[in-house]
Write a structure and sequence with these properties.
The chain contains seven helices and no strands. By secondary structure, it is mostly helical. The protein has two domains: 41 residues; 58 residues, 434 Repressor (Amino-terminal Domain).
Length: 121
């Protein structure tokens, strides 16, 4: 087992190739130990160099709507009338605290995600 820190994209690609080779290593072998260590190093490199940011509140709502097969009209109880829902989803108007509370429950989203600031159109 010859493990080196992942410092560059070349190191990263090399580590990914090695992970593919040892992916099905049997538990208790040196290769399974290498798999665990290399996996942690790759994860750390990806988190540092290719972070995935959480979506803004409006994107989070749209993603959840798609996952739940909801239409804009389905959010009227949480947001208000048809035009209000459209204004919110088109970033013409901000979410209110009351809307955030209702949407968090209906869409099973974290309140902390919904209260994040976002740009209006």
């Amino acid at each position: 087992m010859d493990i080196k820190p992942i410092k560059t994209d070349l190191d990263y690609r090399t580590a990914l190739k090695r992970l593919e080779i040892i992916f099905d290593a049997k538990k208790g072998t040196l290769e399974s130990d290498e798999l665990k260590i290399l996996g942690l190093m790759v994860d750390d490199y990806e988190n540092t160099n290719y972070p995935i940011n959480a979506p803004d509140p409006i994107e989070a709502i749209k993603i959840r709507m798609e996952e739940m097969h909801l239409k804009q009209i389905d959010l009227i109880p949480e947001i208000g009338g048809k035009s209000r829902v459209s204004e919110i989803l088109n970033r013409k108007r901000r979410l209110t605290v009351k809307m955030i509370r209702k949407l968090a429950v209906r869409l099973d989203l974290s309140v902390s995600l919904l209260v994040e600031d976002y740009k209006l159109a």
